[in-house]
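FORM 7B: Structural annotation worksheet

SECTION A. Query
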Amino acid sequence: MMDFTQKQWVGYTVMHPFEGFDDMRWKKSGSVKIALLIVALLFFGEIASGRLYGAQFRTDDDKTFSIVPYLVMSFVIFGVWVIGNWAVCTLLDGEGTIRNICIFSAYALIPYVAQLYINVILSHILIRDEAVFMQSIKIIGTLWTVILLFSAVKSVHRYSFGKTVLAVALTIAAMLIILVLLVLFMSLIQQIYIFVSSVYTELSYRARV
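SECTION B. Predicted structure
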């Protein structure tokens, strides 16, 4: 296997889903900076997909904009996947570190990220009757990413096919648990903030009186 630059490894793993990650693991390649860049592109891609579609394909005319849902769909979900996979695979004797899980998983996202931008561009070129082409690109990009994620988990932890299936299923379950705990934690923080704010307002009012 020839030596690649970090950028070349990105293309190689995407185009060779079944051996690309194995080769990258043996070469101990992969860049955290590139991984974070891919997740950032996912973030902006989700915003573009939600706000910049052509008028004929736009279903939501809501003028308000909140960055929170796009942060959740990109950075939060990705972070929860990495933490959940690391926690589960630690119990299943996986060999992957958080760094490698982050890198491999981010590289696997490239087809999904690419289809976001491609479909935004096509939404300004195609007519509504040609939406099937955009839907096909979305399905291909999503399935490609699923295959890459599966291959990434298998390679980074050196699992068999069956153990990889188990690890992915348990990772999804762990993600749901983490997300529920995050929602409960945020709700608790909100309640504490409301309580402290109410006490402060009441004390300020009494002090003025």
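SECTION C. Observations
The first helix runs from residue 6 to 15. Residues 6-183 form one domain.

SECTION D. Sign-off
Analyst initials: ____
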